[in-house]
C-alpha cells in the first residue's frame, strides 16, 4: 500500500503502520470453528464434523487455572483446574490446533484503531467473525444473540494471534475484555487469565518495573506475545483489546 510500511512479525500476525506517523494496526489472526456439544456426526457447511464437548455445554463463570502458567509448544496446556470447565485434556488439545473432523480453520483480521495518546483499541460488543464461515457456511450451527432475535450467529470458535513487541516504558499496559475464555502470554508466561464460560470480563496488565522483573524481561527488549480466545456458549460474544504497546 502506498504510504504504508508493513512489517511481518510472526507466522500468524502482520502489522501495518502509516509511514507518516501513528495509524491503525491490522492484525492477522487464526480462527478454528467448532460444532456444539452433542451435534451428531455429519456434514455442515460442506465440512464433516461432530460436536465438541466443550462448546455450548458449560457455564462455569470466570475460572482461573484452566491452563498452565506457561505455554507448551507455543500453545496453552490443560491446567490444574481444567476439569472445572473443560471435558478433558484430550478435548482441550484441539482448541487451538487444526483437527480435521473436529474443527475448521479460518483466517481473519482485527484492526486496532489509533484512538490517540498512544493507545490502540479493537472493540466489538457483537463479535461474530465466523458467521457464515466454517461449519456455519450454509447456516448450520446458528443461534441468536440475546439482544438480536433476528440475525443468527455462530457461537463456537477459537481465535489466536502471535506477535513480537517491545516494552519501552513501565507505564505501558494491555487490557482485554471478553467472553468467554481468554489468555494472554508474554514470553510464554501467563499474564491475563480469563478462563471459563462467562459474560464480558476484564483482565489488565501493566508492565511495571516489578512485573518486568517477575517476567525476566527488560525495557527495549523484544518479547513474544501469544493471545488465545474462545467463544463457546450462547448468547453473547464480545471482544475488546486496548493497549499502549505498539508492536
Overview of the molecule:
The chain has helices spanning 89-92, 209-215, and strands spanning 4-10, 13-18, 25-33, 42-44, 47-49, 104-116, 119-124, 143-145, 148-153, 157-166, 173-179, 182-186, 189-194, 201-206, 222-231, 238-243. It is mostly beta strands and 247 residues long. The chain has one domain (22-243). Strands 13-12-15-10-3-6-7-16-11-14 form a ten-stranded antiparallel sheet, with no helix packed on it. Strand 12 (182-186) and strand 13 (189-194) form a beta hairpin. The longest helix is centred in the C-terminal third of the chain and has 7 residues, at 209-215. It starts with a strand and ends with a strand.
Radius of gyration: 18 Å
Model regions low in confidence, pLDDT < 50 over at least 5 residues: 1-21
How many domains is the backbone divided into?
1
Shape: globular
How far is the first residue's CA from the last residue's CA?
A: 19 Å
Secondary structure layout plus pairing:
Blueprint lengths: L3 E7 L2 E6 L6 E9 L8 E3 L2 E3 L39 H4 L11 E13 L2 E6 L18 E3 L2 E6 L3 E10 L6 E7 L2 E5 L2 E6 L6 E6 L2 H7 L6 E10 L6 E6 L4
Antiparallel strand pairs: 1-2, 3-6, 3-10, 4-5, 6-7, 7-16, 8-9, 10-15, 11-14, 11-16, 12-13, 12-15
